[in-house]
Design goal:
Elements lengths: L2 E2 L2 H21 L5 E7 L3 H17 L2 E7 L5 H13 L5 E4 L9 H7 L11 H8 L8 H12 L8 E5 L6 H10 L3 E5 L6 H5 L4 E4 L17 E4 L3 E2 L5 E2 L4 H4 L5 E2 L7 H17 L1
């Protein structure tokens, strides 16, 4: 019987731990503050921002919100970020992606101080991760590692295959699993004989962006499967990159969608905010 990895529960455990830490900081007259900037009113972004505010409230982190109009210029946005970089009362800065087409996301990410980059997207944060230095780690990959560790699944020496090579998930995920002493293979859209490679995986992490792409023929018996994908069908039903029902009887553990990796992303954002305050 496969273990269904409960991301909601682990996420709540982490937020409860952070809540206790934040209370201690408040007793020392120190408030943790996250500033979230949203440009335009993309509906999905609005939901994410609302969830981040709710998480801040739960943990006891003060949240500031800049809700800027779609026509905000790149220069105006960078000016706001520079001002926030200088403010000692702001511990974390998060710019909600995607941004409107006239704004260069890379330039915006680079404008955020690496010391306040709680999303872990700044090139300096990525560089620190790649050479094993302390720094902010992209929240979704960090959440995946927490899921594996808190379920006491061994990582060291295990064969880990990651399907997807994005800057936000695939690449940092590979670095983190290497840090945990796994043997790591990264696959992507140009990989030949994908199923042959994924079938070697003790831990298969899928972030390919295609609904129900991974079926049972891609999976080794007894593998642990982490599904990072999230898609909505025409009936508004959520699914992941893995065909959950098809693989369930073949795996030893799996994350569901929803309720698996998703809640962990926001929990790790809260973790990064508290880390930033304590640095």
């Amino acid at each position: 019987m496969a273990i269904i990895i409960d991301g909601k529960k682990i996420s709540k455990d982490i937020k409860d731990e952070l809540r206790a830490q934040v209370e201690l900081l408040k007793k020392k007259n120190f408030e943790v503050t996250l500033c979230v900037i949203q440009v335009g009113d993309d509906p999905a972004s609005t939901i994410y921002v609302r969830n981040k505010k709710k998480a801040c409230e739960y943990v006891g982190i003060k949240s500031l919100a800049y809700e800027l109009p779609e026509e905000t210029s790149q220069e105006q946005l960078i000016d706001i970020i520079h001002e926030l970089n200088e403010r000692p009362d702001i511990n974390g800065i998060l710019v909600q992606l995607p941004l409107p087409k006239h704004i260069d996301e890379d330039k915006i990410i680079q404008a955020i101080s690496p010391d306040k980059d709680v999303d872990g997207f700044h090139p300096q944060s990525v560089g620190r991760l790649s050479i094993g230095q302390k720094g902010f780690v992209s929240c979704t990959p960090a959440g995946v590692v927490q899921l594996l560790k808190r379920y006491n699944f061994p990582i060291e020496g295990k064969e880990c295959v990651i399907v997807g090579r994005s800057n936000i998930v695939g690449k940092p995920m590979a670095m983190l699993m290497l840090r945990e002493n796994a043997t790591v293979t990264v696959c992507h859209s140009r990989t030949k004989n994908l199923a042959e490679i994924t079938k070697r995986a003790d831990i298969l992490i899928v972030a390919i962006g295609k609904s129900k792409f991974i079926t049972r023929e891609y999976i080794k018996d007894g593998a642990i499967v982490i599904d990072v994908g999230m898609h909505r069908d025409e009936n508004n039903k959520l699914s992941g990159d893995v065909d959950y029902d098809d693989v369930l009887d073949k795996v030893s553990a799996i994350t569901p969608v929803p309720g698996g990796v998703g809640p962990m992303t926001i929990a790790m954002l809260m973790y990064n905010c508290v880390e930033s305050a304590m640095a």
